[in-house]
Amino acid sequence: APGNRFEAENATISQGVVESNHAGFTGSGFVNYTNVTGSYVEFTVNAAQAGNVPLTFRFANGTTVNRPMDITVNGVLASDELAFPGTGAWPNWTTTSMTVPLNAGANTIRATATTANGGPNLDHLALPG
Ligand code: GCU
């Protein structure tokens, strides 16, 4: 994959479906979160060494309402209600980034919707390298 990209459609999905009906995604599609609180996508990311790493989420939100998500790393809350604001239309993709501490080895990164609207459409998670 280009850079160090983890496609949402290949991640663990709880209450969401893989779709490809809005253009511009990377990989083979994106995850359409079910419109409920608690829907999530969970990635497993390996880090060569422990340290702080920027996470970049690529998403689309064709509504005008923010769809915040809690970001947990290895079960610990790393970002409380990270904003995933409207992007104007469903085929309009953008990114939001945050820096988190990773352990050496496998890390679990989960993005969980915190409102009844569910999450945005999630394309991928990118790490440096
Ligand atoms: C529309 C859109 C989906 C999106 C959904 C939503 O149905 O086509 O891609 O996920 O709205 O509001 O979550």
Roughly what fraction of the amino acids lie in strands?
Answer: over 45%
Distance between the termini: 11 Å
Class from helix and strand fractions? mainly beta
- Highest-level CATH class: Mainly Beta
Question: Segments where pLDDT lies below 50 for 5+ residues?
Answer: none
Estimate the helix proportion, in percent.
Answer: under 10%
Ligand types: alpha-D-glucopyranuronic acid
Give helix and strand order, one letter per element, not per position: EEEEEEEEEEE
Q: Quote the CATH topology.
A: Jelly Rolls
CATH architecture: Sandwich
Number of domains: 1
Walk me through the structure.
With 129 residues, this protein is mainly β. The protein has a single domain, classed as Jelly Rolls (Sandwich). It contains no helices and eleven strands. The protein has strands spanning 4-7, 12-14, 16-19, 30-33, 40-47, 51-60, 69-73, 76-82, 94-102, 105-113, 121-127. Strands 1, 3, 4, 6, 9 and 11 form a six-stranded antiparallel β-sheet that branches. Strands 2-5-10-7-8 form a five-stranded antiparallel β-sheet, with no helix packed on it. A hairpin with a 2-residue loop joins strand 7 (69-73) and strand 8. The termini are close together. The mean pLDDT is 97. The structure holds alpha-D-glucopyranuronic acid (GCU). The site of alpha-D-glucopyranuronic acid has 6 residues, from loops.
